[in-house]
């Protein structure tokens, strides 16, 4: 088992890969910070990242933002493939892994080498959790994402599935096919499938936390309270030697 990635405050000293990594970039050259915010759609993840970017840049820190399907290599193809709702679980997994690998090598690592603070709107944990819920082997996934760099801090915004439903409906007036796990045949009713799928995702994240040790943040609270907590933890991270 890998050592926990973070301490209870969500931060870890030193640079490490989860597995084989990318030899092209010596770890000691990656002087920036990699901060990940995880959570389901409707957890407030993107809003918190936007607030953190404003705060960090106001404080004089240069930032770069990355996230799922942001790769210039495969993001558009992945989005088009998902529209048809016909991808197999392995194809979907490898699509996302390629998207991640391209961003890691061509966006995240260069930015860290240049001293930027990289804010990632989700990371490998969401990808692994999704695949685990779909029956993929966890050992295979750990090897697949062995190229991943351990972030300096990871915060998982935990929100109850019933609250996620309300937030997604309020924002989009509909539920997403994939975020509802409709490909799994959990229920013919999208509302019911969403609740079952998000409950399964939370269980997968609990399992992943045993190995990766990220910080769980109560995302059911007011936005300002969550922002205050994240700033406090990140401020402590930035003053570390």
List keywords for this structure.
alpha/beta; globular; Rossmann fold; disordered N terminus; 241 residues
Please, could you describe this protein's structure?
The chain has a single domain (27-238), classed as P-loop containing nucleotide triphosphate hydrolases (Rossmann fold, 3-Layer(aba) Sandwich), CATH 3.40.50. It has a five-stranded parallel beta sheet with strand order 2-3-1-4-5, with helices on both faces. Helix 1 crosses helix 8 and helix 4 crosses helix 7 (190-212). 37% of the residues are buried. It has helices spanning 45-58, 75-83, 89-113, 124-133, 138-144, 161-172, 190-212, 223-238, and strands spanning 33-38, 63-67, 117-121, 153-158, 215-218. The model is unreliable at 1-12 (pLDDT under 50). With 241 residues, it is α/β, with parallel strands linked by helices.
Topology:
Blueprint lengths: L32 E6 L6 H14 L4 E5 L7 H9 L5 H25 L3 E5 L2 H10 L4 H7 L8 E6 L2 H12 L17 H23 L2 E4 L4 H16 L3
Parallel strand pairs: 1-3, 1-4, 2-3, 4-5
Helix pairs in contact: 1-8, 4-7
Regarding CATH, which class? Alpha Beta
Give the % helix: 40-55%
List the secondary-structure elements in sequence, H or E: EHEHHEHHEHHEH
Distance between the termini: 28 Å
Mean pLDDT: 89
What fold name goes in the CATH topology slot? Rossmann fold
CATH architecture verdict: 3-Layer(aba) Sandwich
How would you sum up the major sheet? 5 strands, parallel
CATH superfamily: P-loop containing nucleotide triphosphate hydrolases
Total number of β-strand segments?
5
By secondary-structure content and strand pairing, the structural class works out as alpha/beta
Q: What percent of residues are in strands?
A: 5-15%
């Amino acid at each position: 088992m890998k050592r926990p990635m973070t301490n209870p405050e969500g931060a870890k000293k030193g640079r490490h890969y989860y597995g084989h990594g990318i030899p092209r970039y010596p770890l000691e050259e990656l002087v920036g910070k990699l901060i990940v915010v995880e959570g389901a759609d409707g957890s407030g993840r993107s809003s918190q990242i936007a607030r953190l970017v404003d705060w960090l840049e106001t404080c004089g820190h240069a930032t770069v933002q990355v996230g799922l399907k942001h790769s210039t290599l495969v993001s558009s193809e992945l989005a088009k493939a998902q529209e048809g709702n016909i991808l197999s679980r392995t194809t979907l997994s490898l699509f996302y892994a390629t998207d991640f690998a391209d961003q890691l090598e061509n966006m995240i690592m260069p930015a860290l080498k240049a001293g930027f603070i990289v804010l990632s709107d989700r990371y490998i944990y969401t990808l692994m959790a999704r695949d685990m819920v779909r029956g993929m082997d966890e050992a295979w996934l750990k090897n697949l994402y062995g190229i991943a760099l351990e972030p300096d801090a990871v915060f998982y915004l935990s929100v109850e599935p019933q609250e996620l439903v309300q937030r997604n409906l309020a924002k989009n007036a509909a539920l997403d096919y994939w975020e509802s796990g409709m490909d799994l045949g959990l229920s013919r009713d999208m509302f019911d499938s969403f609740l079952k799928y998000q409950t399964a995702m939370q269980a997968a994240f609990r399992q992943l936390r045993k190995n990766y040790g990220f910080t769980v943040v109560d995302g059911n609270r007011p936005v300002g309270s969550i922002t205050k907590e994240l700033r406090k933890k990140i401020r402590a991270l930035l003053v570390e030697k």
